[in-house]
Specification:
This protein is elongated. It is 54% helix and 0% strand. The protein has one domain. The protein starts with 9 loop residues before the first helix and ends with a helix. It has 4 helices and no strands. It is mainly α and 82 residues long.
Length: 82
């Protein structure tokens, strides 16, 4: 493990102390777990298949928003809009 020293605001330190006491863990363990949770959420967003469709459709000026169901779900709703 790597040792780090950080400066915390009073309310941040109070939160960590409270969580450590409540969970029966050290402040260091709480900080490590919070970082791990944040890293996992960030990774989940990077791997979200939704982001694979960004930029894959080129348009001719017609807003893609009108046909979003077609591009995302493959459902043609153009007749519903007429």
């Amino acid at each position: 493990m790597h040792r780090s020293q950080i400066m915390l605001k009073e309310h941040q330190h109070a939160y960590l102390v409270s969580e450590a006491q409540r969970q029966g863990k050290s402040i260091s363990q709480i900080v490590r777990e919070l970082i791990d949770e944040h890293m996992a959420r960030s990774r989940d967003l990077e791997n979200d298949p939704f982001f694979d469709i960004i930029g894959m459709v080129e348009g001719d000026g017609e807003p893609v928003g009108r046909s979003i169901d077609y591009y995302v779900y493959g459902i043609d709703r153009t007749e519903d809009q007429e």
